[in-house]
TrEMBL record, chains A, B:
Gene3D superfamilies: 3.30.70.360, Zn peptidases. Binds 2 Zn(2+) ions per subunit. Residues 202-294 form the Peptidase M20 dimerisation domain. The keyword Metal-binding applies. InterPro entries: Amidase_Cbmase, Bact_exopeptidase_dim_dom, Peptidase_M20, Peptidase_M20_dimer. Zn(2+) 2 binds at D84, E119, H374. The lineage of its organism: Bacteria, Pseudomonadati, Pseudomonadota, Gammaproteobacteria, Oceanospirillales. Zn(2+) 1 binds at H73, D84, H180. Its cofactor is Zn(2+). One of its GO terms (molecular function) is metal ion binding. It holds the Pfam family M20_dimer. Belongs to the peptidase M20 family. This is N-carbamoyl-L-amino-acid hydrolase. It comes from the Bacteria.
Amino acid sequence: MAIGEIGHVDVVGSKVGGCHRLALTDKDKQARDLFIKWAQDIGCTLRVDAVGNLFLRRKGKSDELKPVMSGSHLDTQPTGGKFDGIYGCLAGLEALRCLNERNIQTLRPIEIAVWTNEEGARFKPAMLGSGVYAGVFKLEDALNTEDESGVSLEAELERLGYSDLADLDDPGCHQYFELHIEQGPVLERLGIDLGIVSGVLGVRWYEVEVTGRSCHAGPSPMDLRSDALVGTSKMITELTDMTMKHGQDSRCTIGELKIPNASTNVSPGKVKFSLDLREGSLDQLNELETKAFETIHRIAYHHQLEIGIKETWSLPPCPFDTKCLSLIQQACELSHPEVEPHSLVSGAGHDAVYISRVAPTAMIFVPSEDGLSHNECEYTSPDQLEKGCDVLLNTLILAANC
Amino acid sequence: MAIGEIGHVDVVGSKVGGCHRLALTDKDKQARDLFIKWAQDIGCTLRVDAVGNLFLRRKGKSDELKPVMSGSHLDTQPTGGKFDGIYGCLAGLEALRCLNERNIQTLRPIEIAVWTNEEGARFKPAMLGSGVYAGVFKLEDALNTEDESGVSLEAELERLGYSDLADLDDPGCHQYFELHIEQGPVLERLGIDLGIVSGVLGVRWYEVEVTGRSCHAGPSPMDLRSDALVGTSKMITELTDMTMKHGQDSRCTIGELKIPNASTNVSPGKVKFSLDLREGSLDQLNELETKAFETIHRIAYHHQLEIGIKETWSLPPCPFDTKCLSLIQQACELSHPEVEPHSLVSGAGHDAVYISRVAPTAMIFVPSEDGLSHNECEYTSPDQLEKGCDVLLNTLILAANC
Ligand SMILES: NC(=O)NCCC(=O)O
Ligand SMILES: NC(=O)NCCC(=O)O
């Protein structure tokens, strides 16, 4: 069985199908168990921490040294693909298999990490497991986080047996490397199969609540309504247009929208939506936020609506470590001298962002077909995937020997 | 206990609170039971039909004649008030109490009907019980209708004990009168406490499905997305603007909107929304529909989205019976000669619309404060409610004696 089969979704138009494997569901556990088994089959030892992050360790010559770490996540979006996250985990395992097969011993131990709830689709925010590891989130807060149906992360860790395994001994991390699909169109457009990720856009998540006045769809004249959905729709249109003009790296996404107590013949009195803003620099992110809030409040005023905005997650723009970046550069030259790797900024947050707060960190990207991700049609060719693996292998060897 | 206490919701700003009493829930059953008890207490007999409509009958001198009927519904919207529907039922009961107290015998029997699932909030479409009674919907189709969680109307009728009671003997209906709150602003603006309803706007309900392409909120440049929600938002804005210009009686409401598999960091690939269009004449309704479809398809084309539209309910504009209207006019003169009742068209569909297909029918309105309904702040003053009751009483006496 392949891990990608766990949560597989058949989708017309997708080359390999999609995946629905939300964090800490039975399917996620199945995927993790298979991954652990494969790692243990090649002699790795398992450590689980208090938030369910997995660490699979290959001994080093000087095993007391801090390990070099690589990793990613096995959870997916509800409409996820077969590559986001899982690729980085499997590539790490593949690198360890190679080292075994060639009898290569490294000075430092190497650990492959599987971070809990990277996607932020089931529990919010994203990158919760790596955030706890890096001390960005308090363990207690993370454990108390609930999914939409009110089930807490802690309850799921207990149910799946991770709480019993939790080992609080942390050997630290010498350097962290994450291999991931780009999830955007840059490498494909350039026709370059390898990307060296110099950093990640800043992100802010908000919950916006729009309150108008519900009324009957029939007798209420159009001009006497204060319809929260009509106002919200104007906001979404203008937020999108504003962001388009703001800059190359500007992003604005409304991914969730709910009308509580919705009914076909009720002009909605309340709407709640999520807002995801991204930018390349802190100044630009602040400016984008200011403009977004102005847009929301201006339209609300015009439509006699009340607004509540709550920030739920924030990630400042994150530059990666120059030493780690040059190790990846070296590894690219060793593995694929025919490719001139492209340096780019990631639009997606990754566990690497949080790990970079406690250890030198950098990332490697391979292209995504059509720039697609968080979509069942997500695809990267076997050849491109292999190139990425090669670079990760050489990076880990270089890093684990100094 | 008052029926309005069953499902009561406390709401800041509401004079008497709101009601959440969806069709065929335990709360609806409780309300129906109390209503039946009160009617039986004054000597009425109960008949239940196969779709759970209740008929509470006061004998006539010539009891074999077709009854004069009055009625409305006890179910509410999720954000319903204390008057929509329940007022008409209680006013009918109050009229029978008056006849008893004054020892008035009528030639024909009088029946007070409680129609099942008028609101269309739990089971779709609206006015399902009266629609079955009038032969507009097949009984079997109505029984198979499911709510959002997949529970069928039939299962609820069985669970609540109505199926066992179902009596298929139908004594018919001589004339039908429904007293209701206006749910709009017309009477209040004119300062007139009594309305004679000459007819009801035509209504069409649709389910619209918008399909784009989901992608990652971070790495996907704004100009490369085909975001189903961004497209839908433009549609809602333009549909609203178009309808505003279309005419005095034109209505367009998007009451429900869902993003399947929504996630904060996913630009939505699919959106489903409900569309409720209303107009005064069939020609105008057709024109409004044509313009609405054009708007949706034009925006979809521009945003590279695919569209599916399914009509789920349709109600042609309905004129009421002139003889019934003049009986109400007479009753107004008898009860409140100081009020010049206003003739108006209802924007809301009512059970009376379906009953009008099988019996001469007309309606009486009393004002709604701020024109509000399908809102917990719905309100009509005791004095206005009493005026409406007076007119209903005299209407029933006039109708039941000829
Ligand atoms: N790579 C990825 O999907 N990360 C989730 C966090 C984000 O929204 O950027
Ligand atoms: N009166 C009322 O709320 N009727 C429901 C059907 C409609 O939407 O018009």
